[in-house]
Amino acid sequence: MLRFRFIGPTTLRGLAGLAALAAVIALASPAPRAATTAAYRVIVNASNPASAADRRFITDVFLKKVTRWSTGDATKPVDQGPDTVVRQRFSEDVLGRSVSAVKSYWAQVLFSGRDLPPPELDNEDDVVRFVAKHVGAVGYVSAAAAVDRVKVLNIR
User: What's the whole-model pTM score?
Assistant: First the structure.
């Protein structure tokens, strides 16, 4: 047997209030992934033939689950300092976790003796120099950084 329940004006006002609250929350929420990628650029050594890479591949490179490019060259990821905005954006957008969660991941890997985390360099000029100098290197810099000696990788 079907039963119908009457929704009174008080309930309707409550639902309208919830809808308004949901709209405010949606507008205040952080921008989706695609909008945050402008905050950084992933860079590789100029000799790297790749022009694009999957986000998952870059994640695996920075977590050292993948250690070779398709060319056979060893991957050499390099991070920026944990307090930089670009590191925070990159970690959240590409690695899918906060900087502190990445640090926890590396603490576990170090404890098990499996590997070392990527080096953390002081600034993006140092990152560009490192990537320019080492075949297989990959890093990230702010969108405003000078990247004339390296290649910007398109992340899909």
Answer: 0.75
